[in-house]
Amino acid sequence: MSIRVVLADDQAVVRAGFRTILESEPDISVVGEAEDGHQAVHLAIEQSPDLLLLDVRMPRMDGIAAVEQLRAAGINTAVLMITTFDLDEYVFAALRGGANGFLLKDIEPTELVAAIRVVAAGDGLVAPGVTKRLIAEFARSTPPPVTGPLPELTERERETLLLIAKGMSNQEIATALTVSPATVKTHVGSLLLKLGCRDRVQAVVFAYEHGYVRPR
């Protein structure tokens, strides 16, 4: 079954490049293009795509506002944010607002395709390079004070969360902990449930905000 994607970027040449890459894949189809956040929200509602590839900075309405508007309307289309900037101060707000992942525009075409498949399948995407930028953003700012009791995680769940925060895949975590990928998947599912997080991206945000992991 084809993954239906809407592209949102204010540069036509960028959208054309993404379309060429994605439509060369047998399991991905582009069902719409938007040049700003308003159009992106409209197309997400009209087309009900599996994934919205959304630029962070666009005129009229940026990617952050678009994500927030979609989530406020109860629309759960997977959103993969993409930006030119190595460290974009707005990206963290986008992840908090409900985005499922974040990429830089200088990635290889194969990485873009793989990311779309991962996020469309319902997983969050925290690539290692992206994680470093998120950590840098945490280091630049003071996390908000935490109130109330924190969920109790087992030692193995804490180890898994730490490795997720480092940007490791399930296979890499399995190798690091000397367990099977199926066991890692179980640990990930358990800690997401305990933390009340939708996916791995939210888990990383939660981990840093609540002190499970500290930026260095």
TrEMBL record:
GO molecular function: DNA binding
SUPFAM superfamilies: C-terminal effector domain of the bipartite response regulators (SSF46894), CheY-like (SSF52172)
Keyword Metal-binding included in the entry's annotation: no
InterPro entries: CheY-like_superfamily, NreC/VraR/RcsB-like_REC, Sig_transdc_resp-reg_C-effctor, Sig_transdc_resp-reg_receiver, Tscrpt_reg_LuxR_C, WalR-like
Modified residues (4-aspartylphosphate): 55
SMART domains attached to this UniProt entry: HTH_LUXR, REC
Domain HTH luxR-type: 146-211
Annotated keywords: DNA-binding, Phosphoprotein, Transcription, Transcription regulation
Domain Response regulatory, chain residue ranges per copy: 4-120
Listed GO biological process terms: phosphorelay signal transduction system; regulation of DNA-templated transcription
PANTHER family: TRANSCRIPTIONAL REGULATORY PROTEIN NARL-RELATED, TWO-COMPONENT RESPONSE REGULATOR
Stated name of the protein: LuxR family two component transcriptional regulator
Organism field: Tamaricihabitans halophyticus
